[in-house]
Structure formats: C-alpha cells, structure tokens
C-alpha cells in the first residue's frame, strides 16, 4: 500500500490548524502571567502627562506625551544585554526619529510605502536576535506608520517629536526609580553565557540566505506590509495606518501562528471597540473622564499583556479609542474605523502565506482522491 497519502496528510496537518485548536488558543487565559506591578509602575507617568495637558488647555499635547510613555512602559518587559531599561531608551529615541520621518513624508509619499516595507523586513530579520531587539524595531515601524497620518513641515514634526521623546524618557526615568526601589518587575534575566552582540549580529547575517526561514519570513513581511501601505497610500483612509500596522503585528514566522494571531487580534479589536463604543455612547465623557478611561484601559493592557493576546488587544483598542477621542475625534467614528481597518489588515496578513494555504488545499484534495480510490 502506498504511503503517499499519509505523508501528504501529515504535511497538511502541519499547516492547517484544527479549528478547536485555534479556539482554544484564543480562549486560553494564563493568569499566572498577570502583572499588575508593571501596570502600577507605568500608568502614573501617563496620568500625569494627561492631567498637565488638560490643566494647561492642551489635551492633545498631553496625549502625545502619554502615548510615548505607554510604548516606553512596554519596553520594561523586555531585555537587551540584561537590561530592561535599554529597550525603553532605544524605543524612546527610535520612535522619536520614526515620528519625525513619518510626519515629514506623510502616507501619500511613494517613499513612505517603500520605507514601510524595508522597515518591516528589518524588524522580521531582527527576530533572529535574542532579547528585546526585535521588539524595539517593531515599535519604530509602528510609530513610523502611525505618524504618517499627521503630515506636516519640519517645525511641526519637531514639536511632536519633542513630546514623544519627553514621554518616553519620563517613563524610563520613573521605571528606573521604581525598579531600583522594588528590585523586581523586570523580565527574567538572560543567561550570563548567552551570545554576545557580535554573535547575534552574525546570526542575523546568516539569515540573509534565501534558504533561511527568517529570511523568507522577512520577505513575506516586506511584501504584505508594502501592499498594505500601498492601499493606505492610494485609498487615503483617515486613520488608515491601522491597515499596515495590523498587518505588521499579525504576520508571524509560520502560517499557523499568523492565522492564530490574526484571529486573536481581530476578536480582541471587535470586542474592545464594542466596549469602548458602549461606554462613550452612555457616558458622553468630558476630557477628564476620557483621560481617566484611557489610563484605566492602559493599566489593564499592561497587566494582561502575557495573559491572553485577545484580552490585551481588547484593552489596547479601548485605550486607543479614548486616546483619539481625547484628540477630538468622535468615539463612534473611531470605533468603526478601528474595527474595519483591523479586519482588513488581518486579512492582508494572510496573503503572506497564500502559497502555503494553496499547497495545503492541493494536499488535502490529493488525500481525498487517494482515499476514494482506496475505498
């Protein structure tokens, strides 16, 4: 009896996750990873920035500082060469530069589309390095995409960059003080005998071969993010940066992870948008209330980051909705855009593995034909 049907079935099983497995991954909540310490450490800086901005009659400036602080706070969960402060500093400086470049180019520039693909590919390549290096590169790319929606001249870009940098560095300083006082709350230390910087750079260099899975991942990432940025570039959606940003965050090193990540992000976004929409519709919040809701959902986003990705995305979505509402956008409009553009970005992410899904469909068809002949 031929063994080919079994072989093809095994290959198909490798690439097509069981529906129950996807559901289980989405609904699994690991509460041992609940981390209120990092949340309490990070949100005071955000709250202070928002309070000062509202008090001075400039809530938009306060929310830009708070957004920079939010991203830098996530950096304390990562390590580069044994330090949880280094990712925060690098993220703060990098997202400042990315903001300047994104605002100068704007999303209507062809150079923006090309750089989005290059930056995304670089992030994918850096996943070969240990620690938080790839996370830092990811945040630079995210801020480049987001900032493209606020096209302005160099002077306006410098003002916004100063606010972003202030938020990031303030968060770094507060976290440094809190960590020294508590002596805990960072990610686990890397082994002392781990690879040095030269070895890690060497591993990235080796990944430039087309036979390397990381190189293929990088190419897939570059293609789909470029496509997503091109759609944003031509259609000119308001807040359309969510399309390439979602694609960037969803695409993973294999098809199964990408499909799972996409399902979890879309699920979390839809539920989070619904929750934020209901709150906004019933409360009609003032700027102070919006700031309070923003800080509340930011706290939960920090705390549940490693509990469940859908739950994290739920809180992140609500945080973003109230952040943009504080800038003057109607919450209902933000909710609809966030949900629609996230779904579109998630769908585009699946294009990264369209060849894999096509081959799997052919393998399954071959299995069925072989079983029919055997019967």
Notable traits:
single chain; 375 residues; mainly alpha; 16 helices; 76% helix; disordered N terminus
Task: Describe the protein in words.
The chain has 375 residues and is mainly α. The protein has one domain (4-374). The chain contains 16 helices and no strands. It has helices spanning 4-15, 19-27, 36-55, 59-75, 86-105, 110-126, 133-147, 154-182, 197-206, 213-235, 242-250, 255-283, 287-303, 309-326, 331-349, 354-374. Helix 5 runs antiparallel to helix 8 (154-182) and helix 6 packs antiparallel against helix 10. The longest helix is centred in the middle third of the chain and has 29 residues, at 154-182. The radius of gyration is 22 Å and the shape is globular. 47% of the residues are buried. Mean pLDDT is 84; it is low at 1-17, 187-194 and 361-365.
């Amino acid at each position: 009896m031929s063994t080919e049907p079994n072989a093809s079935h095994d290959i198909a099983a490798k690439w097509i996750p069981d529906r129950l497995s996807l559901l289980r991954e989405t609904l699994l909540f690991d509460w041992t990873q609940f981390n209120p310490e990092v949340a309490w450490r990070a949100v005071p800086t955000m709250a202070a920035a928002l309070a000062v901005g509202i008090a001075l009659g400039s809530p938009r400036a306060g929310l830009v500082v708070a957004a920079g602080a939010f991203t830098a706070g996530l950096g304390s969960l990562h390590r580069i060469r044994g330090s949880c402060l280094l990712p925060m500093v690098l993220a703060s400086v990098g997202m400042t530069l990315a903001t300047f470049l994104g605002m100068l180019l704007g999303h209507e520039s062809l150079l923006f589309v090309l750089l989005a693909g290059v930056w995304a590919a670089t992030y994918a390549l850096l996943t070969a390095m240990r620690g938080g290096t790839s996370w830092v590169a990811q945040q630079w790319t995210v801020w480049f995409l987001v900032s493209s929606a606020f096209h302005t001249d160099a002077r306006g870009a410098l003002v916004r960059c100063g606010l972003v940098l202030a938020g990031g560095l303030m968060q770094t300083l507060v976290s440094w003080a809190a960590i020294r006082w508590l002596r805990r709350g960072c990610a686990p230390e890397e082994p002392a005998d781990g690879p040095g910087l030269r070895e890690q750079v060497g591993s990235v260099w080796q990944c430039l071969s087309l036979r390397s899975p990381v190189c293929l991942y990088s190419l897939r990432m570059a293609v789909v993010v470029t496509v997503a940025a091109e759609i944003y570039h031509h259609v000119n959606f308001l807040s359309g940066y969510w399309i390439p940003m979602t694609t960037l965050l969803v695409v993973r090193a294999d098809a199964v992870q990408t499909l799972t990540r996409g399902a979890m992000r879309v699920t979390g976004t839809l539920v989070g948008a619904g929750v934020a929409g209901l709150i906004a519709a019933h409360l009609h919040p003032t700027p102070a209330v919006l700031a309070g809701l923003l800080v509340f959902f930011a706290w939960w986003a920090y705390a549940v980051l490693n509990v469940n990705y859908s739950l994290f995305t739920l809180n992140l979505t609500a945080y973003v909705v109230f952040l943009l509402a504080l800038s003057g956008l109607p919450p209902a409009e933000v909710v609809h855009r966030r949900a629609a553009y996230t779904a579109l970005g998630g769908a585009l992410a699946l294009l990264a593995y369209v060849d894999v899904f096509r081959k799997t469909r052919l393998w399954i068809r071959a299995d069925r034909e072989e079983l029919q002949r055997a019967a």
